[in-house]
């Protein structure tokens, strides 16, 4: 059986629900969608996503990328994206796996490989799409296949994950991963700022505070933050606030005004305007639509 067919059948058997499905394998998530989804805003974790069937469109860093069966996406920092499944049917659903990147393991591998890794220069410095070679597909098959043998997961999953990351570090986007590990690299500085904003997004802040956290000047932070994410730190904070408010309304049944206050908005009217601008509908209409199409919540 060809690798892409075997991977597709494995994911189809284990991803039995619409949307994201956590697995007993650390950092591994499976995704299924039986119909095209609405464009959804989200923050994509540093990860690799391998599509086994269907197609996805992602907008990030002022680029629009389409990738499908035979392709994988690599994301190297917490990146706001607008994405949606564009090719899926009940008979041939969108099927994908996401493996979140273990930075410590990546660093260990780079040290052990002790070889220079070519620096790629993608137009977006935080993500890239590439064809998935058979070696990477075979490793992914063995990782997902552990779901049929749960007793083997603690022993074999770390070995297969290590192999997957090794293959990525030998692939065409090795430089994108390597920059995550380079001391004082601009991506690491920006990532420090991102981590601070993600922890404190509900609080007002000054650019000077974020610049100090990133160990950069204010002007340098603006320049490199925008280069990595195509937005300013304040725009990034706004996206986090609106996404968290959406989650609170959807999962905790909060009214819009309460959700807006919890994420840092003092003005309900401002919150409503910005929510509609971001998601295309007022909070109640937007959340009603999401509840009727849970597959739209797929992130990868």
From TrEMBL:
<dbReference type="InterPro" id="IPR018060">
    <property type="entry name" value="HTH_AraC"/>
</dbReference>
<protein>
    <submittedName>
        <fullName>AraC family transcriptional regulator</fullName>
    </submittedName>
</protein>
<keyword id="KW-0805">Transcription regulation</keyword>
<dbReference type="Pfam" id="PF12833">
    <property type="entry name" value="HTH_18"/>
</dbReference>
<dbReference type="InterPro" id="IPR009594">
    <property type="entry name" value="Tscrpt_reg_HTH_AraC_N"/>
</dbReference>
<feature type="domain" description="HTH araC/xylS-type">
    <location>
        <begin position="191"/>
        <end position="289"/>
    </location>
</feature>
<dbReference type="GO" id="GO:0003700">
    <property type="term" value="F:DNA-binding transcription factor activity"/>
</dbReference>
<feature type="region of interest" description="Disordered">
    <location>
        <begin position="275"/>
        <end position="300"/>
    </location>
</feature>
<dbReference type="Pfam" id="PF06719">
    <property type="entry name" value="AraC_N"/>
</dbReference>
<keyword id="KW-0804">Transcription</keyword>
<dbReference type="GO" id="GO:0043565">
    <property type="term" value="F:sequence-specific DNA binding"/>
</dbReference>
<dbReference type="InterPro" id="IPR009057">
    <property type="entry name" value="Homeodomain-like_sf"/>
</dbReference>
